[in-house]
Amino acid sequence: MALELKQQLKMTQQLIMTPQLQQAIKLLQLSRLELTEYIEQELQENPLLEINATPPPEKTDGVSDQAPDINKIEQTKWEAYLDTYGQANIPYYGQEEKPTIESTATKEEGLTEHLLWQLRLNHFTEKERRIGVFVIGNLDINGYLSTDMETICDATEATEEEIVSVLKRIQAFDPIGVASRDLKECLFVQSKILGIENGIIGRIIGSHLEDLQTKNFDKIAQALDETVEDISLAAQIISKMEPRPARNYSDEPQQYIVPDIYVVKVDNDYIVVLNEEEIPRLNLNKEYQDLLISNKTGHMTKDYLTERLKSAQWLIKSIRQRQSTLRKVTASIMRFQREFLDHGTNHLRPLVLRDVADDVGMHESTISRVTSKKYVHTPQGIFELKFFFNSGISRSDGGFVASQSVKSEIEALIKAEDPKSPLSDQAITIKLRGKGINIARRTVAKYREVMGVLPSNKRKKYY
Q1: What's domain 391-459's superfamily in CATH?
Q2: CATH architecture under which domain 111-239 falls
Q3: How far apart are the first and last CA of the chain?
Q4: Rounded distance, CA 362 to CA 85, Å?
Q5: Which helix (H) or strand (E) element contains residue 459?
Q6: Does pLDDT of 330 surpass 90?
Q7: How far apart are CA 186 and CA 172, in angstroms?
Q8: pLDDT of 12 higher than 80
Q9: How far is residue 230's CA from residue 46's CA, in Å, rounded to a whole number?
Q10: Lowest mean pLDDT among 136-150, 190-204, 243-257
């Protein structure tokens, strides 16, 4: 059979991932703070962009775009990829009063400042004070000394005996146990201040902390020749001690989550409002647009300005589209989770990306991107948008309950249990089935472990 070459014409459609499309997709993933930083960077690099200082209109889809459309081809590609153009189905209420949350706070006294204040008030020699300052300056976030003795000796030109003497005095500062070198020393310092270091408590701290952490009271009782009840009582006292002395102190400013979206209840409806404060609203610079159409402008300058104009207009469109998509997706999630908004976590319903994607006519990957690193303020508190996606556990009535709701049920059962006779995983399984939730014992065990709850034999109290 003879071979021959032929030419054929074939028409196909495909979406090309241009830099503009990549930028638009990237904007979907950015948090509110990251978006603000990105816009500020673009403002510095693109002369065609400027900040619109006029107040926003009462209803808006985001950042306004007043420029003529010179980028229709790129817009078509954008529509092909997301298929989300058009007005958002939830309006923006510019005059609606949003829920108030703490956005600023006075900085609490840090651990370092607190300890140095005590160092100044106590009687130390100049050398001891120098040792103390070095020790305090080398504590980790938990309040433990993070530097070895040899390093302190070299830095302060002091003997180990001098350093230990200062160290013991600092460990008696508030918070007690600070500057300890390990957990054992930290707990022993606290027991000494309480005057109980020489009894059963001191012996447990000295030799059986690992067994204490796993609540292996039988082993400790056998090793110390004590009753399990006495070991349990001692364990309760030790559990009241502070393993991390710096827990209530921070040398860092307090951090707050600023929500990207507010869900506000108005009468019997829930309204989705974007938090667009501090996000710069953009315009195209008129002077540079006039320069672009001027006959006096050279070809090279016009080419540069044309390219910058396209980039600026695409950025404005992409930001507007990001805001519209975020509002639309959030509104969809809240429609699915109306029971949660009304009654709380126990009423979360199973929800997957496909449910929202089908509801708003977008791809699942778009839903995943737009819900990444975004937080929503609801009447039930502040949550990451991804929190609302849950797998489902079947109910005896044929319906489903969200896995997060099941975890809440397990937590409630454990909190209400008798400490002397805690519920086993099987007992929890039976109680959940009594509530119509069909769940396997191994699933209960998995959820309990994820929640950081010990098994029943480790939760048992002996008093």
Answers
A1: Homeodomain-like (1.10.10.60)
A2: Orthogonal Bundle (1.10)
A3: 94
A4: 11
A5: helix 456-459
A6: yes
A7: 10
A8: no
A9: 73
A10: 243-257
